[in-house]
Amino acid sequence: MMSNTLDRDSQTLYFYFNPNCPYAQRSWITLLELGMAFEPVEIELGKDNKTDWFRAMNPNGTVPTVKHGETVVYESLVVNEYLCEVFDGNKVALMPSTAGDRAKARILMSRCDARLVKLGYSYLSHKRDEDAARDDQLRSQLEEELCFLDKAIGESGGTYFLGDNLTLADIAFIPFFQRMSVALENFKDFELKSLDLSHLNTWFEAISKRDSCAQTQMSPKQIQEVYARFLKIDYFKRIGAIN
Ligand SMILES: N[C@@H](CCC(=O)N[C@@H](CS)C(=O)NCC(=O)O)C(=O)O
Description:
Elements: H1 2-10, E1 13-17, H2 22-34, E2 39-42, H3 52-57, E3 65-68, E4 71-74, H4 76-86, H5 99-125, H6 132-156, H7 168-188, H8 198-208, H9 211-216, H10 220-232, H11 235-238
Parallel strand pairs: 1-2
Antiparallel strand pairs: 1-3, 3-4
Helix pairs in contact: 2-4, 2-7, 5-6, 5-7, 6-8, 7-10
The chain binds glutathione.
């Protein structure tokens, strides 16, 4: 506890991010929810432009990255747990209090990257006129995943994935829901809200209203512009987000 207090008082926390990056948004939301003071540093994306000092900190050259004193952390889900551990004295708990529930949160977080992100971007990137059957298959796989998530929230007995309180599990998903709901509707005529998934829809509405999520989100117009560009250059395949 003592060292946390010292860290908080004496060390600036630098947050390397880009406002278009959903992974960086996860950590941005976490910083805001924890009420931590931080110094944002915007990093340009999509270019082979990473400076030596940035690569020396994070060999992957990705955002989010945080530097806190001598400690450098990257990979959004790892960054978020680091922030929670260091600032656990702030009274806001973004990880559940029991080991079992923390395990559940971690399973959901890894499922977000392994399944939702992959399925969502695979379906979004697929060109229906090239293979309609494959398009239908990708759509039903995505719907199945959304049903799974809806059920997980329903079983928690609260609005969020782990019950009544927001946790890092919710924060892992929200940037992708914000982007995918706009992009899928726009480019695939797929409306999340039209699916009969009441827990998921209630979750999306509730979490979207939080200041941390509203303040960090891209506007629908920005999402349409950025994603139109991504789709044109096969971005999700190129960066390895999908196969
Ligand atoms: N698994 C990483 C993914 C981070 C990531 O892919 N970030 C992208 C931007 S959304 C990035 O920094 N790419 C390097 C670049 O575009 O220069 C995480 O969770 O932090």
